[in-house]
Amino acid sequence: MKKRNLVFTVASSLLLATVLMSQTKKPAAPAKTAGATASGGASASITRGKQVYLEQCLACHQVDGAGVQGMNPPLVKTKFVLGDKNTLVKIVLNGMQGVEVEGEEYHGVMAPHSDLTDAQIADVLTYVRNSFGNKAKAVTAAEVKAIRAKNKPA
Ligand code: HEC
Predict the structure, then answer these.
(1) 16 within a domain of the structure (yes/no)
(2) CA-to-CA distance for 88 and 80, rounded, in angstroms?
(3) For the segment 117-126, what is each residue's pLDDT rounded down to a tens digit?
(4) Whose CA is nearest to atom 15 of ligand 1?
(5) Could you tell me if residue 93 is inside a domain?
(6) Does 30 map to a domain?
């Protein structure tokens, strides 16, 4: 019984979506976006991520990612930026304090940014991992979602 309800709900919302979509006549997508993922691919993610960076991270980590000596660490080729995505996403979700970065101590406090959406966190980290001389794989919203689900706030 429950299952039938669910199937019905899914089917009717699909129908509704189809009707809505057919009513909004969007121009055909330009050819260069063909083949990109639903979120527009890595380069679109980097573009969106830059906006998030300017709003959320710039004040501390600076426009060039160099940070502020003794206060806020750089985001240039650090093991956190280039390393394990799990740790990196958790830094954004939970903030960070009192960790040595590349042999230097920093006395600033990074507050949690768990109010950002999965997509915003994915975009900003994809931007950081592909800016300031960094080169590392994109972070996807699905990855952030999975990490957030297992994240236990301290
Ligand atoms: C209020 C200032 C502040 C803001 C805003 C901030 N950070 Fe931080 N961030 C810090 C500080 C301070 C540390 C290091 C804390 C420590 O000493 O352990 C840090 C550490 C980090 C680290 C790990 C260390 C490194 O340098 O590799 C990453 C990655 C990072 N921040 C990314 C971000 C991103 C992405 C944003 C925006 C979503 C952001 N931060 C916003 C201050 C800030």
Answers:
(1) no
(2) 6
(3) 999 999 999 9
(4) 97
(5) yes
(6) no
- Choose the residue to mutate in 78, 110, 123, 144 for probing ligand 1, maximizing ligand atoms within 8 Å of C-beta: 110
CATH of residue 58's domain is 1.10.760.10
Beta bridge partner(s), residue 110: 96
Q: How far apart are CA 143 and CA 132, in angstroms?
A: 23
Residue 9 counted as domain residue: no
Question: In this predicted structure, what is the pLDDT of residue 35?
Answer: 37
Q: How many domains is the chain built from?
A: 1
Contact 113, 131 (CB under 8 A): no
Is residue 136 in contact with ligand 1, taking CB distance under 6 Å? no
What would the pLDDT profile of 25-76 be if each residue is shown by its tens digit? 555 544 443 334 446 789 999 999 999 999 999 999 999 999 999 999 999 9
Predicted TM-score (pTM) above 0.70: yes
